[in-house]
């Protein structure tokens, strides 16, 4: 039994260096893989924030009513909403802030108009408006954008 223990040798310096080199390559590969996922996560968070901003703008327009939304009967009306900032926590107390710019386009209202006539007058009434909200933001030097559309009644 003691003879078996005396014949066993430990790892040599060459084996340890080879093992540490392999572990180093694996560690660098994991870091590189995680960096790509980090960018994808930031892109997804930016897009989710843009969807949230677009929904917020649509909800605000619905709450004021269609009479308060500027529009024209025969052409589209476009106006900008002030920039909206969203902030997310990132890791150890750090945060990321994204600034969203919003443009609202109200389609011509001729498709959403009804007329009522009596023997004294003809009344025209707009009962709905088609609203397109375009939200833009910068991500890594390029401009990203989404568009959300809704009919407000």
Task: Describe the protein's architecture and organization.
The chain has 153 residues and is of the alpha+beta class. The protein has one domain (11-152). Helix content is 38%, strand content 39%. It has helices spanning 2-7, 13-64; strands at 77-90, 94-106, 113-117, 122-126, 129-139, 142-152. The chain has a four-stranded antiparallel β-sheet, covered by helices on one side. Strands 3-4 form a two-stranded antiparallel ribbon. The termini are far apart. The mean pLDDT is 87.
Percent strand? 35-45%
Oligomer: single chain
Tally of individual domains: 1
Give the % helix: 25-40%
List unreliable stretches of 5+ residues: none
Rg is 30 Å
Q: List the total number of helices.
A: 2
Shape: rod-shaped
How far from one another are the termini?
A: 91 Å
What structural class do you assign from the helix and strand content? alpha+beta
Largest sheet: 4 strands, antiparallel
Overall residue-averaged pLDDT value: 87
Number of strands: 6
Which sequence of SSEs, written as H and E, runs from N to C? HHEEEEEE
| Physical arrangement of strands within the biggest beta sheet | 1-2-5-6
Key terms for this structure?
two-stranded antiparallel ribbon; 4-stranded antiparallel beta sheet; 153 residues; 39% strand; alpha+beta; rod-shaped; single chain
């Amino acid at each position: 039994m003691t003879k078996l223990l005396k014949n066993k040798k430990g790892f040599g310096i060459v084996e340890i260096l080879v093992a540490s080199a392999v572990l180093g390559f694996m560690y660098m590969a994991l870091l590189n893989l995680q960096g790509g996922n980090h960018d994808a996560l930031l892109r997804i968070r930016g897009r989710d924030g843009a969807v949230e901003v677009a929904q917020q703008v649509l909800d605000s327009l619905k709450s004021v009513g269609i009479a308060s939304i500027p529009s024209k009967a025969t052409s589209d009306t476009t106006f900008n909403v002030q920039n909206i900032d969203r902030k997310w926590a990132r890791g150890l107390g750090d945060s990321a802030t994204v600034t969203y710019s919003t443009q609202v386009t109200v389609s011509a209202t001729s498709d959403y108009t009804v007329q009522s006539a009596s023997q004294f007058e003809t009344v025209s009434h707009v009962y709905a408006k088609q609203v397109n909200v375009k939200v833009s933001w910068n991500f890594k030097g390029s401009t990203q954008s989404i568009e959300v559309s809704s009919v407000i009644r």
